[in-house]
Amino acid sequence: MATAAPQTIEKPEVRIAPRWHVVLLNDDDHTYEYVVEMLGKIFNKTPERAFLHACEVDATGRTIVDTTSKERAELKVEQIHAYGKDPRLPRSKGGMSAEMEPAE
């Protein structure tokens, strides 16, 4: 009796989508309270974690607030820009600046 040769099953190649950082940029037109509130609403950050981001953006000029898919990063940058002015500062004219960069 002849036996059949074992069949090999080819697995499809799994490719992981590139990740993107959402980077919040510093300015002088928003308070720490604004940053904490905004990060809580947009990214569901705890007040403690959001405060650490506020400190980092103030000290270094930028902070990575999320690492995600390109589409979600685009949405989050738009939400940061659209969050609106800081009512605590009369000179505040709109949302904070943010950008995306590839996560390496």
Tags for this model:
104 residues, alpha+beta, 3-stranded antiparallel β-sheet, 17% strand
Give the helix/strand layout:
Layout: E1 20-25, H1 32-43, H2 47-60, E2 62-68, H3 70-82, E3 98-102
Antiparallel strand pairs: 1-2, 1-3
Helix pairs in contact: 1-2
Short description:
The protein has 104 residues and is of the alpha+beta class.
Structure, explained:
The chain is of the alpha+beta class and 104 residues long. The chain has a single domain, classed as Ribosomal Protein L30, Chain: A, CATH 3.30.1390.10. It is 38% helix and 17% strand. The chain has 3 helices and 3 strands; from the N terminus they run βααβαβ. The chain has a 3-stranded antiparallel beta sheet with strand order 2-1-3. α1 packs across α2. The chain is elongated and about 85 Å long. The mean pLDDT is 93.
Largest beta sheet: what is the strand line-up? 2-1-3
Structural class: alpha+beta
CATH topology grouping? Ribosomal Protein L30, Chain: A
Radius of gyration: 21 Å
**N-to-C terminal Cα separation, in Å?**
56 Å
| Beta content | 15-25%
Main pleated sheet: 3 strands, antiparallel
Q: Helix amount, in percent?
A: 25-40%
**CATH-defined superfamily:** Ribosomal protein L7/L12, C-terminal domain/Adaptor protein ClpS
What's the pLDDT, averaged over the residues? 93
N-to-C series of helices and strands: EHHEHE
Q: What count of structural domains?
A: 1
Global geometry = elongated
Q: Given the structure, what is the number of helices?
A: 3
Number of strands: 3
The CATH architecture term is 2-Layer Sandwich
Reading off the top of the CATH hierarchy, the class is best stated as: Alpha Beta
